[in-house]
Amino acid sequence: MRGDIPAMTDEGSNLVGRRQETDRLRGLVGPPYPEGRRLLLLGDAGVGKTALVAEAAAHARSAGVRILAATGRESEQSMVFAGLYQLLRPVLDRVDALPVRQAEALRGAFGISAEPAPPDALLTGIAVLTLMSQLADEQPLLVWVDDAQWLDRASLDALAFAARRVESEPLVLLLSARGTAPPAGFERDFPQLRLPPLDLPDAGRLLDAQPRPPRGRPREQVLAQAGGNPLALIELAKVIAEDPDAGRRWVTEPLPLTTQLTTVMAAQFTALPAAARSALLIAAVAESPDVAAAVPGLSAGALAPAEAAGLIRLDAHGPQFTHCLVRMAVYHAAPFTDRSAAHRQVADALRDQPDRHAWHLAAAALEPDEQIAVLLETSAAQAQRRGGAAAAASALERAAELSPDEHDKARRLLAAADLAQSAGQADWVLALAEKVLTLTSEPDLRIAARFGIGWALQWSNRHAEAFETLLALAAEAGARLPDVAWGATSMAATVAHQTGKADTVTRARAALGALDASAPAPEGVAQEYRIWLKACTNPYVDRDETVAELHRLADASPADPGMVGAAAWVLNETETAVGLMRGYLTELRAPGVRGASGGVLSALEWAYIDSGRWDEALAAAREANDIAAAYKMETVAGSADLTIATVAAMRGDFGDVGPLLTRVHAAVDVAEYGGYAARIRHTAGLAELAKGNHGAAYTQLRRHFAEDGTALHHTFSYLAIADLAAAAARAERPSEARTLLERALARISPAPGPRLDQLAGRARGLLADPDTAEKHFVTALADPAGEVWPFERAQLQLDYGEWLRRQRRVNDAKPVLGAALETLRRLGAAPWTRRAESELRACGVSVRSPRAASALDELTTQQREIVVLAGSGLTNGEIADRLFLSPRTVASHLYRSFPKLGIAGRHQLRDLIDRHTANGG
Q: Is the Cα dihedral 145, 146, 149, 153 positive or negative?
């Protein structure tokens, strides 16, 4: 490092060409920053990313911007939070000013706390955001990460989490990475700039600016070989100046550009004196200037020839390679025996840093070595305690490779697979578990590996393979390993529920019966497993018995409230589901276990929608998106986005629906996840229905059922039957829909429960002839249990009220429509509210505008949540800590909310909220 700006390449700060890119970056980093800015710069090795950003950083510094910078290092990819520590090291003295939980999380992540808190990716990410926000409040801030493709995964995750929440902070987050693919976590919603090669005139200008520029045919050969890559132009110009015949060899022996460059640099390395080669190899092994400086005997004198050759720069911070390709060329040009000796020398200098010490010893090893394997296993435990699951898994995988004993090798690979599972990397879990199967014949180890394979297949969207693997595993484990058997069957039932295919559901139900007969259920969670399996496989079979069992279990303080709450949701015992899962979330928000809340939130957000708690559903979805981002849970993110889209459709915010559904499609393979496919079609159909596009709505909703009535999803498709009927009736296709509806309902129990009874009554009423319609509406409304699902109840009342008015029974219609309007207004279901108001006016009722006290309804969900917390007396910092935002973002939301609320400041919030609540808000 030079100060806090990474070293530039040989192009220096006077860049040739790049005017458009330079102007864009200068505009990006030039203060003032009215809001947060982000950019990811992508390009091939040597194309000039570092030089371009360094020039922009120098411009920012001259304008008074503070700069925090870090460079990804290939050798530190397995060092948990190494990149983040490098970035924040200059400001670690500011950690004490963070909220207590955040400060503890960040110290624990860096391993600098005497009593580290349990690892919590969410808290670590928000701590990074809060720290950056506080620094930006004092002075505009540029955060620059170069070679981000080599950052360790934990650091990338924390930075990605913070980057997605940069809103009003006066800071710029600028990353540069090699290639065309963004680093993990930055694939979505992050602006990108791809840096192309120089065009031919600019390439010629750069070539002509070299100390010994080629002329004539050699010049054309360099231009052709370099292809506009600045580093290639510079290095190949040096080569052809020393060896004019090199150009002819390039024609007959073409190499990929990166290989060609490293070959050139390797030749420069081998031409150095022996002492310089040894010193330069140690610098390449150490990679970090700080580490290199700790190795005895690595003197400036020994490195002087390498500096003269342009391979490194020397300054007060130590040796720095002029380009990452130089380091790679030097490292790989040396024989393994020399590299091994250099790694041992560096390891010996790093005994006070156990992780680095272990990894350098591992890099020096060619044969199995149990002592080094134990050191790596210890390093993995340390990384795990600091929240670096991916780094811990890498250490254990390498420990397995170095294990002389087959049992230890398999054991360590399984442990690595468990940690890779925690890191959300299904492909890695699969590879590790499959290695175990090739190594050992021990039954217990093989069963554990197959369980990991089943999990990995499920999370890789390979549901058919996952289902077969898990059922076979359950049958094999049986009475010998009942915990595994029940766990595998439960996971298979989850897969069946996710796919929603009839044959899969039937087989999962049969597996439950076989398990009951052969394997005792695990103590403490036996009933939880059973209720979940029954709910997943068919919530309409023996429903009364299952629901009674559910309530007994819920009343007895279940060991796993999340599983029981999710079962209650699937069984349409909505209030029980909300009570169990809402209470359980309080426990799951504790540091160290927060990742387990993703599945609970995915169920709870839908239970909130069902029960008319739409604002709470949106808040749960926002929290689920935070969890998904921190713990890499794509399906959790997909469910959250689908929740938000559904509420948007019901409230008439149609502009949000399409983009959100597109994001869900990108996150989840709907061909494998029938549940998501059904929800997406229902939401899309609702949006079209609300817009009055009845034909388009029918097209979407009709796809829930095949001609013979087979459901796309065995539970979720039935929740769309009433909206399907409404679209069909208004699209003048009632006969077709009526036949389809009866075929679909014939496939489930004649007593599917009050929710399905209500939906079926509305559907049949809409599709019936005028002389038979009323009995269906009346029967559906007669059961007070239907009030549990207020939107569905209000839709039923609205449709019945419309029918009554059209039968000229205006006085009968008025109270029914009035009840519907009250609920629809409370929910904010604007399209249906307008329909209810129109129907009441047609009945001669004067419809008053909604209450004036509902100004809160004009806020976004997040603004409303912040306003309510501020009204309760919380400070901006306390609100930020609770909602995983920065204090500045909280302040910005409040500032934008006050004019909408018609108030001057925070002191008026309490009264406004009280009035809103008193008026039914």
A: negative
